[in-house]
Amino acid sequence: MIIRVLGCSGAIAAGSRTTSFLLDHSILIDAGTGVGDLTLDELARIDHILISHSHLDHVLAIGLLADSVMRARVARKRPPIVVHALPQTLDALRQHIFNGVIWPDFTRLPTPEAPALRFEPLEVGEVLTLDGHRIEVLSAAHTVPAVGFAVDAGGDRGWWVYTGDTGPNPALWRRLASMKVAHLIIETAFSDDESQLANVSRHLCPSTLRQELQHLAGSVDVYVTHMKPGEVCAVMNGVSTFDTPHRIHALQAGQQIELGLSVADVLRQFKEPVVSRPNNL
């Protein structure tokens, strides 16, 4: 199982793309600006989009993707791309994006009988089986209804966990306590200098990230995501002070994470130095 990081920034700038992950070839997890780096053929292979919440940096590529691949999928008689999200998130997409004003309603185009997109509600705790992948919907604590996702790598290889946008979230750690977490993708949008803004907007900063990671057992590869452009150094400098058994990295667009590899193999996939290493590495 390969997770390709298409985007992992909290906003845009040169070299910064907003959140999106490609699971193998057919499943998107969030649909930020990073989706635009895929080729047309890669876009046309996507059958499922899992959306964590309704904020623009996580959903804006859905409509553009549908428009790009609609003709090719119709010609190949492919079914609609299924968008999986909370009912409240799907309602927000219908009302505020696919409303004929901001963007055409691709849940009815090119025809209502054979649209480019189909919306499918999900709920926290639900386990989906998509293209052979087992994916659990996790809770998140954000300013709008939100979720995270955990992907089962199979066997004893553990879970790839993505928190979505979230502030402190005790329910998440209660669920992860019974899972073998191999990789944790956790947001830290702001530096400690903006801790008040992080609190109001239900995001993490290094001080709250430290508190959250105290609930994570074992020694896990932790990847910090959703940092704002210009804030990466400040956030990672704050993270570098942690006394933790976990190995903490800054997530990077273009990085690939493959479950089933050794830790050393995973670390060789990107150049960002490890912030904290246990003695046995």
From TrEMBL:
Gene3D superfamilies: Ribonuclease Z/Hydroxyacylglutathione hydrolase-like (3.60.15.10)
Domain Metallo-beta-lactamase residues, every copy: 17-215
Annotated GO MF terms: 3',5'-cyclic-AMP phosphodiesterase activity; 3',5'-cyclic-GMP phosphodiesterase activity
Coiled-coil parts of chain: none
UniProt xrefs under SMART domains: Lactamase_B
InterPro entries according to UniProt: Metallo-B-lactamas, Pdiesterase2, RibonucZ/Hydroxyglut_hydro
GO process annotations (BP): cAMP catabolic process; negative regulation of glucose mediated signaling pathway
Domain of life: Bacteria
Record protein name field: 3',5'-cyclic-nucleotide phosphodiesterase
Organism: Piscinibacter terrae
